[in-house]
Amino acid sequence: MSEGSAQRTRTVTWKDYREGVTAAKQLSGLEYLRAMQRGELPGPPIAELLGMGPSEFQEGRAVFTVEPAEYHYNPIGTVHGGLAATLLDSAMACAVHSTLPAGASYTTLDLHVTFVRPITHDTGRLTCTGEIIHLGGRMATAQGRVTDASGKLYAHGVTTCMIFRPSGAGT
């Protein structure tokens, strides 16, 4: 076995996400997201797996960060594009979620990502900001940007989300 092929190990732990799913039905989207950020509700397991976390939630805006690492790499020696895509999907969808009343939910209908430059573990901490573009009764759109500490752009995207409102809440 060559020196560079030494096996690495990473252990991932997370809390039971179902408590958060139950609470989400009782809280506005912004209240729910902020409760997760404060650690009062468990975050999603995918965030623990990828090492990403929320840093800011405002109405219509969500910000996540991640430190790219070797365990994010693809076979050609750079961070897999799925990391930027997951950051964008999370930030843009949470920007939509932050505008919803208690009992409403959403799902991503489409996600378009443009990769601008490669990401490596030397890139340093990445910040992904998602912001709402349009909020309608049944659909919302949002945009997002993945940047490094100096503001250099690595990827950007747009999404469309379908909104599910409780019966009698209007359209």
Automatic annotation (TrEMBL):
<dbReference type="InterPro" id="IPR029069">
    <property type="entry name" value="HotDog_dom_sf"/>
</dbReference>
<protein>
    <recommendedName>
        <fullName>Thioesterase domain-containing protein</fullName>
    </recommendedName>
</protein>
<dbReference type="GO" id="GO:0047617">
    <property type="term" value="F:fatty acyl-CoA hydrolase activity"/>
</dbReference>
<comment type="similarity">
    <text>Belongs to the thioesterase PaaI family.</text>
</comment>
<dbReference type="InterPro" id="IPR006683">
    <property type="entry name" value="Thioestr_dom"/>
</dbReference>
<dbReference type="Pfam" id="PF03061">
    <property type="entry name" value="4HBT"/>
</dbReference>
<feature type="domain" description="Thioesterase">
    <location>
        <begin position="77"/>
        <end position="153"/>
    </location>
</feature>
<keyword id="KW-0378">Hydrolase</keyword>
<dbReference type="InterPro" id="IPR003736">
    <property type="entry name" value="PAAI_dom"/>
</dbReference>
<dbReference type="InterPro" id="IPR039298">
    <property type="entry name" value="ACOT13"/>
</dbReference>
